[in-house]
């Protein structure tokens, strides 16, 4: 069974910074997740770990606490 067609040369790109999304691997080197994170509400698509932590999570918190509401 092929799961998601994981191939090293078709790594997904982060929609925020444009870099490749690093696959998450187990301790014995097996890729178990290569789909990054949901980039909403910053952008539609998938994003890397770094952008998720630095941009997407803060953007979600902003919405949650409505810091930017008038
Ligand atoms: Zn990124």
Query: Fraction of residues in helices?
Result: 10-25%
- What number of structural domains do the residues give? 1
What is the terminal-to-terminal distance?
A: 52 Å
On the 0-100 scale, what is the average pLDDT? 85
How does the helix and strand content classify structurally? alpha+beta
Q: Strands of the biggest beta sheet: in what spatial order?
A: 1-2
How many H/I helical runs?
Answer: 1
Q: What characteristic shape results from the CA principal axes?
A: elongated
The SSE order reads EEEEH
The major β-sheet equals: 2 strands, antiparallel
Radius of gyration of CA atoms, rounded to a whole number:
15 Å
Q: Any low-confidence stretches, pLDDT <50, length ≥5?
A: none
Portion in beta strands: 5-15%
**Small molecules bound:** zinc ion
How many β-strand stretches? Answer: 4
Q: How is this fold's topology laid out?
A:
Elements: E1 24-25, E2 31-33, E3 37-38, E4 46-47, H1 49-65
Bound molecules: zinc ion (ZN).
Verbal overview:
By secondary structure, this protein is an alpha+beta fold. It has one domain. It is 24% helix and 13% strand. It is built from one helix and four strands, in the order ββββα. The strands form two sheets. It has a two-stranded antiparallel ribbon. A two-stranded antiparallel ribbon has the order 3-4. A hairpin with a 7-residue loop joins strand 3 and strand 4. It is elongated and about 50 Å long. It starts with 23 loop residues before the first strand and ends in a 5-residue tail after the last helix. Bound molecules: zinc ion.
């Amino acid at each position: 069974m092929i799961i998601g067609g994981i191939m090293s040369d078709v790594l997904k790109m982060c929609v925020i910074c444009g870099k490749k999304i690093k696959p998450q691997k187990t301790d014995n080197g097996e890729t178990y997740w290569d789909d990054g994170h949901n980039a909403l509400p910053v952008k539609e698509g998938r994003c890397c770990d770094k952008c998720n932590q630095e941009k997407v999570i803060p953007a979600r918190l902003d919405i949650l606490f409505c810091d930017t509401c008038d």
